[in-house]
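Reading a protein record of the kind used here takes little practice once its layout is understood. An example of such a record is reproduced below.
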Amino acid sequence: MSWDNLHFLPLAVFVCLPFTFIISYIIAICLGHVEPVFPYISDTGTHVPESNIFAQALNMVAALVAITIYMRFKHVEQYYRDDLTLTSNKIFRLNRLALYFGILSSIGLSVVANFREIELFKIHLLGALMSFGFGSVYCWLQSWLSFRMVPLVNNKRMAWCRTILSVIITISFLITCVMGQISIHNFHGKDPTNWQPENGGYHTHVISTISEWIAAMALDFFILTYTREFQTFTVSTPRVMLRTDDFDDPYLSHSSRYPVDATINPIQFSSDRETSTPTTIR
């Protein structure tokens, strides 16, 4: 069985991520849990009941992001697997490195969802730094790869678009960190999740929160740029191999494996469905 319409993966991330933030923001505003003027994204998912929705939805989005990142990795790998040039070797290495940073970023997103800032602030902060920090590195690596893969995988316009988004993500993330530290030093209120203008450091706080929202939306748009390229391939489900060396039947007992159906075709391009050679698991 093959999975078509993989372009729905980045589309799902693009829709579900802001939808999660907006729903938790609306609930938090209606219940008076946060200041209406650009709270931190995490502040909108701190108090019950919006925290439950925020955590559940963000965990699902993190899983979708991880799957999308892995599909992108296999997509690039499939194009260059038979190319033995030095350029292809470098692309292979950077593609795998980008996979590691991307998966770490999605794990950070899950950490943000599961560890609320009012309970385990340091772990929550670590998750946010992983999500945006490793996410920025991932975007820069993919932007560099996009230039290297013109015109085989994408065009130069798309490569420049990803580079611009990477710049926005990086600058916004740095502004969030710097302004956040300045504002927290000037804060003299009781609840930083409901930061009021009279609590001190309010203007730098708003700059920090706006930058965080911009970084999150830029990351979201970066994932969206995969939509067109995900239309060029399909994924086939693997087939199961039964181990027979653990059976008691003397006719089946030996140290090797009997492959019941050993063919697997992990990724098959739409134009090559009839002519592609299956890969055998050994």
Notes: The first strand starts at residue 2 and ends at 3.
